[in-house]
Amino acid sequence: MKKMLLALVPLALVTACSGGSPQDAASSESHDDHGAGTIKLTHYAADTELFVEVRPLAAGSRRRFDAHLSWLADYRAVTEGTLVVELIWPDGTIDSGKAEVSDTPGIFRVSVRASKAGKPKLRFRLQAKGRESVHEIGEVIVHPTPEAAAASLPKEAEDADAIPFSKEVQWKIPFRAEAVTRGVMAETIPVPVDVRLSPDAEAVVAAPVAGIVRVTGRVPAAGMQVQRGQQLGSIAAQLGGGEDLAGIDLAIRQARIRLEAARREVARMDTLVGAESVPQRRLDEARTAERLASAELAAAQQRRGALGGGGAGVPLVAPISGRILSASIVRGASVQAGAELVKIGNPASLWLVARVPEAQAARLGTPTGIDVQIDGSWVDAREAGTIALVQGTGFVDPATRTAEVVFALNGTRLRPGQRLQGRLQTGRTRDAISVPASAIVNEGGQGVIYVQTAGETFARRPVETGLRSAGRVEVRGEIRAGERVVTQGAAAVRAAATSPNQFGHGHAH
Fold it and tell me: What tens digit of pLDDT does each residue of 484-499 get?
């Protein structure tokens, strides 16, 4: 677009509006009347779109540049800052003017007086939001007299198909225009896509024994983050094997009695050995009996604790790190051995399972990627995280008549259990001109795009569509790479085609 505009700049840039008489040479310091033989220019910088209307330049005459500036990020009017317009001469001198945004948001009215005739370079510098957006237009012609400037205007060529759509209207509605590109596009086929947790990212904590649930801290609940090895609770085992509480309590008392007797015997033997009344062997035997009695007591107390008496019980431990997906742990609840208590998963470790119809499975080579529809927009799954092919089309399931293609996805933008519309990249590619999918308007079965031919002028162009990939669509027709197409607000542009007086020029210049 820029290259094309530069070629037109010396001849008055883009198009001229008719009407009005040339400025009188004696009125070299007066301002222009809007619409009297104006030139129109559209130019794009990295951050802003510039649309300018100005009369042909003449030496010694002051010209007002009516500059319309939009932020390309959202196509909203620039509502703050200062615009500097410069004529940069080959000898290094500069004729310039500057102005802040006018009472009409988005419009800057900057007057510049050309000091001489010749071919200076034209530059616009917008200083706003703490940064500078520069539009380098290239060489323009400054004519020696206002009469020569007026005579330089090309004859107005009527274009019955041109759609006028003013900046003031564009700024008031959701509007966006994006570039047409040419490049390699991937062939895709439509598929449903199921989002699952990967097999190694999901685990279940089940009751290892029948018993009573005990939790000393926070009760595990869905959404809670846990770490591998973290204890979530414990199970106090229920009585079994012919044991009862009374029998275990009796065993504890008996073990305590034996331990006390063993300790007394150790003290007695220690005294007798010191008096050399008994051999050392008798003391060693007493100490062994003491240790056995202590071990019996500890074992009996542990059995009693596991049955709900305050011991550690059988621990419930998280086997992986992740988030609790579901939990049915209730303090004091009775559970059976093997009952599922907690399900843990890592929601960032996913599988995208695409189901390919058997009629298309044979077309697949090695799939190179997959596009999915998220919140109404098509995106390459790589934008949702890191992906890797896990399984190609190995076989066709006789029950579903589909073949599964699986991609591993590491990301948090999708959720396990979702079903999405997808487009599987088959591995085949070709060079193509493409536009964002939102630029295609279906008009009676015909694909149509609206091309921005100038800042306030659009054209309707029928196209044929082809490949679809990563939110873009291949188009064939009267369209070139570098042109800009309406991707938001096409309905309003279409309405302007039928009612131009309602959407055309309404400048408050």
Answer: 999 999 999 999 988 7
Averaged confidence pLDDT in the chain = 84
| Predicted local confidence at residue 348, as pLDDT | 87
Q: Among 48-52, 98-102, 138-142, 151-155, which is the least confidently predicted range?
A: 151-155
Beta bridge partners of 406: 353, 391
Q: What is the C-alpha to C-alpha distance for residues 119 and 91, in angstroms, rounded to an integer?
A: 11
- Residues 407 and 423 sit within 8 Å (Cβ to Cβ): no
What gap in Å lies between CA 57 and CA 488, rounded to an integer?
36
Name residues whose C-beta falls within 8 Å of residue 119's C-beta, 6 or more positions apart in sequence: 10, 90, 139, 140, 141, 142
456: left (phi over 0), alpha (psi -120 to 50) or beta: alpha
pLDDT digits (tens, 9 = 90+) for 115-149: 999 999 999 999 998 999 999 999 999 999 999 99
Beta strands in 276-418 (DSSP E): 314-317, 322-327, 334-335, 340-345, 349-357, 369-374, 377-380, 386-391, 396-397, 402-410
Of 71, 137, 69, nearest to 105 (Cα)? Answer: 69
Nearest to 472 by CA among 178, 46, 173: 178
Q: Which of 63, 180, 205 is nearest to 122 (CA)?
A: 63
> What residues contact 453, with CB distance under 8 A and at least 6 apart?
162, 459, 483
Say which DSSP state 305 is in. Answer: I
Q: Which two structure tokens, joined as six digits, stand for 255?
A: 């073990």
The model carries a pTM of: 0.63
Neighbours of 139 (CB within 10 A): 14
Stated as kind and residue range, the H or E segment containing 148 is: helix 146-151
Q: Which residue has the tokens 């990967």?
A: 198
**Cα atoms in the 13 Å half-sphere on the side-chain side of 352:** 32
Q: Between vectors from CA 470 to CA 170 and to CA 468, what angle results, nearest 5°?
A: 90
